[in-house]
Amino acid sequence: MMKEMKGVCFLFSETGTEGGWWAMQEDGFVSEDGHWKYEGLQYLREGDDFTVYADDGSVLFHGIIHQDARTGAIPRRVIRNGKLANHSTWKQQVVDGLWVHWIQKGIDPEVWGQLFTGNKRCLVRRQEETRTTART
Fold first, then answer.
1. Distance between CA atoms of 19 and 16, rounded to whole angstroms?
2. Which of 127, 130, 126, 123 is nearest to 26 (CA)?
3. How many other CB atoms sit within 10 Å of the CB of residue 80?
4. What is the pLDDT of residues 71-108, one digit of tens each?
5. Cα(43)–Cα(121) distance, rounded to whole angstroms?
6. φ, ψ for residue 9 (rounded to 5)?
7. Residue of 3, 12, 10 whose CA lies nearest to 122
8. Among 7, 4, 2, 9, residue whose Cα is nearest residue 114
9. For 18-67, how does the pLDDT look when each residue is reduced to its tens digit (9 = 90+)?
10. Of 21, 62, 69, 136, which is least surrounded by CB within 10 A?
């Protein structure tokens, strides 16, 4: 069964995330003072059917999410013995100067990043996870 979520797409990042996550804030999850609630935060997932709309309602992007965490990844800079050095295994991608955890496969990272600026409307269709109950 498919779950359909409408909202606003953005790059989510906070202390401890070690980079940005492509996400959407689902409609209907707003506090009384107008702030977004965490319950409405939806990270984009592999296999999501994702659509982003322009202000006039035209489609800017529509496709299935295929996460690519390798293309264009660069080493993170760390301090070793008081000097800056490239970490030998810790690599991440950068979009518009910000660390991110993945980019959409087959699309220019900067073009992808622009979809998440300006509070653009979006739609996510996701296969709902089915739970099985073990019987004893």
1. 8
2. 123
3. 9
4. 889 888 888 899 999 888 888 899 999 999 999 999 99
5. 15
6. -95, 145
7. 10
8. 9
9. 899 999 999 999 999 999 999 999 999 999 999 999 999 999 999 999 99
10. 136
